[in-house]
Amino acid sequence: xxxxxQQIQKSFIARLGQxxxxxxxxxxxxxxxxxxxxxxxDTPMRQAPxxxxxxxxxxxxxxxxxxxxxxxxxxxxxxxxxxxxxxxxETLPAGTKRTLVFLGDYIDRGLQxxxxxxxxxxDRLKNFETVFxxxxxxxxxxxxxxxxxxxxxxxxxxxxxxxYSYGFQPxxxxxxxxxxxxxxxxxxxxxxxxxxxxxxxPKEHFExxxxxxxxxxxxxxxxxxxxxxxxxxxxxxxxxxLLWIRDEFLDDTKEFDHMVVHGHTPAEGVFRDxxxxxxxxxxxxxxxxxxxxxxxxxxxxxETSPV
Length: 307
Known about the structure:
Blueprint: H1 3-18, H2 23-30, E1 63-68, H3 75-89, E2 97-102, H4 113-120, E3 129-132, H5 136-146, H6 151-154, H7 159-165, H8 180-200, H9 203-211, E4 215-218, E5 221-224, H10 239-244, H11 247-250, E6 259-262, E7 271-272, E8 276-278, H12 283-286, E9 290-295, E10 298-303
């Protein structure tokens, strides 16, 4: 790590100490989309399901699927969960295909965002088939790459931590509305960060972000970042809903053709009913990164424990 990068990270950590946010506030920020213009709603993490799952679903013959929830810049948790998955996979029958399905939101909020991508594109996962889905936070990074003006909005949702992990310090634009001169200076500052980020983003990372899938279907399961809009065929689902939908999907009661496995909405524990399996357990806040193990008709879960 360069001396400059170390200085930038120390500066960021100092700012974190000054800008302490409550857990409730962070959860509320998770609930709001980047393009939403409505007021923020302080919504707590969702509770555990009130009913037991009775629906029988089956993974593809001869394949064990491990679906991993939102990582959000926590390489430490990712490494620990991968170790658990590797140990578990050694108990599978010989010849079983082992597949990791990542549900998106690898970056933002955590200072190890770049490190997470390094793990995902390394030989660390060479013994598994891999599927990488797009999350709304990866969509935000790609949007920033094409629009410097989006940076000041992206940092409100964790993009600052991602920029720091790549060695950039987001401009302090809190006074940008005080005068025309301040606004102009803030715009130029963001353009400087934007140009540097575009130039120094590793090619392998750029290709990874652009290769992410919208969804994945395997056996009786459909894997997606946020969820599905009820009563809309899969091929007609909008890209925005697959990345952003919340209450319309979470609160509906009708089953889909597939069991939907998703992240995006943090809950106090893994959620499972006859419609969906929710795997976002707020890793960045809780220290719990969760995965579903889907083999034949068995459904079980692995997760890291807070330290």
